[in-house]
Amino acid sequence: MQPTYFDHAATSPMRAVAIEAYVKHADKLNPGAAYAAGRRARSVLDDAREQIAALLGADPIEVIFTASGTEADNLAIQGLFSAASSSRVVTSPLEHPAVAETVRALEAEVDYLGVDRSGHVVDFSALDTPAAVVTCMMANNETGAIQPIEEIAARAAATKSPMHVDAVQAVGKLEIDFHALGITTLAASAHKFGGPRGTGFLLARRSPAPSAILHGGGQERGIRPGTVDVAAAAATAAALQEAYDEREAEHTRVQRLRDRLESEICRQVDDVVINSREPVLPSHLHVSFPGADGDSLIMLLDSLGISASTGSACHSGVSRRSETLEAMGLTLDEGIGSLRLSLGPTTTEEDVSAFSAEIADVVQRARLAGQR
Ligand code: PLP
């Protein structure tokens, strides 16, 4: 049985170009060393930095390699907060835990942007008062909802509030111009666009720069000290280049597959709520099957060789909606019986057919499980 993978938003298989770059440079030594081997490693790292900067409208010096998207979010939010004199933070209730938990861990006065049932920020009034940090995602990891980031950035700039953008789901899929956005920092994660896992980067303007949260040898402008993994940086740049080279064609192809999935689900299953609403990434389809048990949906699909994820989590035996779904106003039933299908470069028509052949039966059984 050929596995059917609908979890690209969690992690996407490494692209062949990234594996090639990784293998080619796996022998590189310390890019900070002054001798010849160090200079060779440094030159590969510089090329990766320049390539990433050019693709995202940043200067090479603004690219800070990190160990993950989570680390990039932490370095930016904690670092900007510690550099500021105020203790007010503005964020959205839709954020990934990498941002939401980081904000929670600050001793900050937190104000939230208002969101609607489609999972988009619609109330900007919290931005009218200056903040130490404004932090908002570019696209949501669960629904794929694309946020009005230009407007949020402009409103933050009007009060001279530094702004961080978690663009982990958007990089490689949306056109991004870091300078044109006028934001302070932006976080990305390589494994979401076909680069290696355990690698990310932060784009960070020269000023205001985040204060150091990690302390060490001063690498990466002192914002992320530690010897950089040159092979991972080269693989990240190669993956990002290919993602942007293919972007328009992939956007159309993946959107068509997503739309087919959506219409198959709506045709075969009664009482379906589509939670991914425009403007939305073409790769995401978030659906609720009220009355169904989320864990059963995942397990039943898994037994058929189909990988997807749910919007509910089980804490101490009690099923809960994710915070994002709660903020959007989904009922408990809608949140618990939900499924996130996320598509990517390896998704095919056959994957959609394999899923469509099983979904009616899977939902029926997950609804029976939900009655227990
Ligand atoms: N931010 C968003 C929106 C994400 O979707 C993720 C991962 O799912 C992260 C941050 C964390 O990225 P990483 O897995 O590289 O730590």
From TrEMBL:
UniProt entry keywords in alphabetical sequence: Iron, Iron-sulfur, Metal-binding, Pyridoxal phosphate, Transferase
Record-annotated Aminotransferase class V domain positions: 4-355
Catalysed reactions, semicolon-separated: (sulfur carrier)-H + L-cysteine = (sulfur carrier)-SH + L-alanine
Lineage top rank: taxon: Bacteria
Cofactor(s) required for function per UniProt: pyridoxal 5'-phosphate
This protein's name: Cysteine desulfurase
GO molecular function: cysteine desulfurase activity; iron-sulfur cluster binding; metal ion binding
Coiled coil: none
InterPro entries on file: Aminotrans_V_dom, Cysteine_dSase, PyrdxlP-dep_Trfase, PyrdxlP-dep_Trfase_major, PyrdxlP-dep_Trfase_small
Entry similarity comment: Belongs to the class-V pyridoxal-phosphate-dependent aminotransferase family. NifS/IscS subfamily.
Gene3D superfamilies cross-referenced by the UniProt entry: 1.10.260.50, Aspartate Aminotransferase, domain 1 (3.90.1150.10), Type I PLP-dependent aspartate aminotransferase-like (Major domain) (3.40.640.10)
PANTHER family, sorted: CYSTEINE DESULFURASE, CYSTEINE DESULFURYLASE FAMILY MEMBER
A Pfam family it matches: Aminotran_5
